[in-house]
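pls design
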C-alpha cells in the first residue's frame, strides 16, 4: 500500500516537473531569463534580466511595462521610450531583445554553507584546507500563497525545480558524493548534478518517509587543497503546458497519455542538449584556431616593432647627418664665395703682371741697344790691336834699352798701362758679350713669362667662371641641405610618432592576445559544461524519466487537488519583473555562485568574467 502511494506521488511530481513547454501564441509573448550572481555564501549581489518579446504578428509598435533599470537593446537597433514603468518599443515588425538590472528579491534564494571534518567553517577559512568537506546548497522558496484545497486554507508555493551542478578536480579530491543527483567522472574531473524541489514537499503535503522531495543538495569530498568552481543553478517554474493540462489532472484514466508526452518532451530536451554540445565543441575548435592566429599576429607585431626601432635609429642618424650636411654646405658656399672674390683679385694682378712684362721687354730692348753702343765704342779692329801690341812691345824694348832709369821707367809704365788697357778692353768686350747673352736669356724668359701669364690669365678666367658655378652650386647645395635638414627633421618626428604608435599597437596586441587566451580557456570550460549538461540530461532521461514513466501506475486522487493548485500557480508565474495585461510570458532563472579559490586566482577569474562580458557585449553590438 505504501509503495502504491509512493508511485502516485512520483507520478504527480514527475508530471509537474516537465520543463520548457511552448506557451500559447498570443499577439506577442515575453520570455525572460534572469541571471543572478551569488557570492560564495549564496547571497545575490547582481541580477540582470534578459527579455525577449516575440512579435508573432509583426507589430510596428509594442507597448511593454518593466521596472528594470538601465534598459538597453541587445540585438538590434530598435528604439524605445520609457515613462516610469511604461515602455514603448518601435519594433518595426521585429522581435525585441533587451536587458536591464534589478534589485528585486529572487523567488528562490540559496544559502551555501561549509563544514570541514564535521565542523562548520566560513568560505574564507576553508580555502586551501584539507580534510572531509561538505558543501550544502539550501534552497528556499519565497513565493508562498494561501490557497483553498478541499474546503480549507493551506500554504502552498509556486512550484520551482532547481537543477544545480559544478565540476570538481579529481587531482586534489576523492570520494566525491552528491545527494539526490548524479556524478560523471572522466578521470581528471567529476561533474556533479543535483536536483531540488524547494517548497514542493510542503505544497503537496507529503511526509519525507513517504517520498522525499529535497529542498537542498549536499556535495561531499575528501580534499587536500580545497577550492570550488562556480556552481550553476537552473530554476524554472514552468512545470505544465497550459490550463488544459489542469483539466487533465482530474482525469485519472487519461494520465498515461501524459506519460508519453513527458517522455517526448524529455527526448526533445536531450536532443537540444546534444545540439548544444556539438555546437560548443565546434565553437571551441574554431576558437583554438583563432587563438593560434592571434598568437602569430602578436609575434609579427613584436617583430615589426623591433625592426622599426632600427629604422627609427637610422632616421635619427639621417636627421643628425642632414644638419651636418647643412653646416658643411654652408662652409662650401662661404669658401666658394671667398675663392670667387680671390680669383677676381688674381685676375687683376695677372693683368698688372702682363703690363710689367711689357715694360720689362721695353727695358730689355733699351739695355740691349746701350750695350751695342758701348760695344761699338770699345770695338777695335785687328790692325789697331796689332798696332797697340807693337806699341806695347816697343815700350817694353825701350824700357830695357834706355839707360836713363827715369825714361826707362816711363817706357815701362807706358807698356804696362797699355797692356792693362788692352786687357781691360778685352775683359770689357767679354763682359759686354756676357751681358748681351744674359739679356737674350732674359728676353727669352720674359717671353716665356708673358706666354705663361697669358695662359694663367686664360686659366684664371676659366677658373673664375667655374668658381662662380661652384659658388652657385654650393648655394644650391646649401639651400637643398636646409630643405633636407627640415625634411629629415619632419621624417624624424613622424618616425617617432610611428614608433610610439607601434609600441602602443604592440602592447595592445599583447594584451589582446592575453585576453584571447583567457577567452579560449573560457570556451573550453563552456564546451566541458555543455558536455556535462548533455551527459547529465542523458542520465536524467535514462535513469530518471524513463524509469518513472515505466513505473507510473495507480491513482493520484490523494494529491490531484494539490497538483491542480500547483499547476495554477505555475501558470500564474509568467514573469519575474512586470507583464502587460493580456500578454503571455515565461521566465527561467540561472544562479551563478562565485568560485572559492586563492585570492590571486579569484582576481584572475573575475578579470576573465569581466573580459568575457565585454567581449559578449562587443559581439552583440557588432551583430
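designed seq:
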Amino acid at each position: 500500500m505504501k509503495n502504491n502511494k509512493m508511485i502516485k506521488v512520483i507520478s504527480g511530481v514527475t508530471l509537474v516537473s516537465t520543463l520548457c513547454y511552448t506557451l500559447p501564441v498570443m499577439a506577442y509573448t515575453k520570455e525572460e531569463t534572469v541571471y543572478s550572481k551569488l557570492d560564495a555564501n549564496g547571497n545575490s549581489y547582481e541580477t540582470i534580466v534578459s527579455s525577449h518579446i516575440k512579435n508573432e504578428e509583426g507589430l510596428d509598435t509594442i507597448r511593454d511595462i518593466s521596472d528594470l533599470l538601465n534598459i538597453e537593446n541587445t540585438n538590434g537597433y530598435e528604439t524605445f521610450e520609457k515613462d516610469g514603468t511604461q515602455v514603448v518599443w518601435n519594433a518595426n515588425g521585429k522581435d525585441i531583445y533587451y536587458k536591464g538590472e534589478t534589485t528585486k528579491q529572487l523567488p528562490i534564494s540559496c544559502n551555501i554553507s561549509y563544514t570541514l571534518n564535521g565542523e562548520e567553517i566560513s568560505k574564507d577559512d576553508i580555502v586551501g584546507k584539507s580534510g572531509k568537506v561538505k558543501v550544502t546548497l539550501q534552497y528556499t522558496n519565497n513565493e508562498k500563497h494561501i490557497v483553498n484545497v478541499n474546503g480549507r486554507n493551506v500554504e502552498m508555493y509556486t512550484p520551482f525545480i532547481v537543477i544545480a551542478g559544478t565540476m570538481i578536480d579529481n587531482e586534489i579530491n576523492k570520494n566525491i558524493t552528491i545527494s539526490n543527483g548524479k556524478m560523471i567522472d572522466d578521470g581528471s574531473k567529476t561533474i556533479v548534478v543535483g536536483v531540488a524541489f524547494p517548497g514542493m514537499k510542503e505544497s503537496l503535503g507529503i511526509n519525507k518517509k513517504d517520498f522525499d522531495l529535497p529542498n537542498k543538495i549536499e556535495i561531499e569530498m575528501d580534499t587536500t587543497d580545497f577550492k570550488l568552481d562556480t556552481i550553476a543553478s537552473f530554476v524554472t517554474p514552468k512545470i505544465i503546458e497550459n490550463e488544459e493540462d489542469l483539466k487533465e489532472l482530474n482525469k485519472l484514466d487519461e494520465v498515461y497519455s501524459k506519460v508519453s508526452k513527458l517522455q517526448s518532451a524529455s527526448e526533445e530536451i536531450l536532443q537540444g542538449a546534444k545540439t548544444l554540445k556539438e555546437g560548443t565543441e565546434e565553437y571551441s575548435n574554431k576558437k583554438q584556431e583563432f587563438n593560434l592566429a592571434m598568437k602569430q599576429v602578436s609575434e609579427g607585431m613584436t617583430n615589426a616593432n623591433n625592426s622599426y626601432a632600427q629604422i627609427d635609429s637610422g632616421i635619427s642618424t639621417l636627421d643628425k647627418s642632414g644638419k651636418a650636411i647643412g653646416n658643411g654646405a654652408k662652409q662650401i658656399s662661404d669658401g666658394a664665395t671667398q675663392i670667387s672674390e680671390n680669383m677676381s683679385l688674381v685676375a687683376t694682378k695677372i693683368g698688372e703682371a702682363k703690363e710689367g712684362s711689357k715694360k720689362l721687354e721695353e727695358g730689355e730692348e733699351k739695355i740691349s741697344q746701350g750695350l751695342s753702343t758701348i760695344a761699338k765704342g770699345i770695338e777695335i779692329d785687328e790692325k789697331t790691336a796689332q798696332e797697340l801690341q807693337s806699341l806695347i812691345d816697343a815700350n817694353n824694348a825701350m824700357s830695357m834699352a834706355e839707360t836713363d832709369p827715369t825714361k826707362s821707367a816711363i817706357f815701362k809704365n807706358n807698356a804696362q798701362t797699355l797692356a792693362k788697357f788692352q786687357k781691360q778692353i778685352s775683359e770689357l768686350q767679354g763682359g759686354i758679350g756676357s751681358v748681351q747673352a744674359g739679356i737674350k736669356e732674359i728676353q727669352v724668359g720674359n717671353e716665356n713669362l708673358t706666354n705663361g701669364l697669358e695662359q694663367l690669365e686664360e686659366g684664371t678666367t676659366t677658373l673664375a667662371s667655374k668658381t662662380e658655378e661652384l659658388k652657385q652650386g654650393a648655394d644650391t647645395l646649401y639651400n637643398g641641405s636646409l630643405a633636407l635638414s627640415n625634411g629629415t627633421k619632419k621624417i624624424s618626428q613622424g618616425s617617432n610618432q610611428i614608433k610610439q604608435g607601434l609600441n602602443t599597437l604592440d602592447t595592445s596586441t599583447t594584451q589582446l592576445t592575453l585576453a584571447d587566451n583567457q577567452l579560449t580557456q573560457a570556451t573550453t570550460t563552456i564546451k566541458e559544461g555543455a558536455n556535462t549538461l548533455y551527459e547529465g540530461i542523458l542520465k536524467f532521461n535514462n535513469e530518471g524519466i524513463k524509469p518513472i514513466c515505466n513505473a507510473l501506475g495507480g491513482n493520484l486522487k490523494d494529491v490531484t487537488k494539490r497538483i491542480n493548485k500547483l499547476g495554477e500557480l505555475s501558470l500564474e508565474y509568467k514573469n519575474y519583473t512586470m507583464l502587460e495585461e493580456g500578454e503571455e510570458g515565461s521566465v527561467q532563472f540561472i544562479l551563478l555562485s562565485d568560485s572559492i579559490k586563492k585570492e590571486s586566482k579569484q582576481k584572475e577569474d573575475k578579470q576573465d568574467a569581466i573580459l568575457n562580458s565585454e567581449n559578449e557585449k562587443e559581439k552583440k553590438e557588432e551583430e
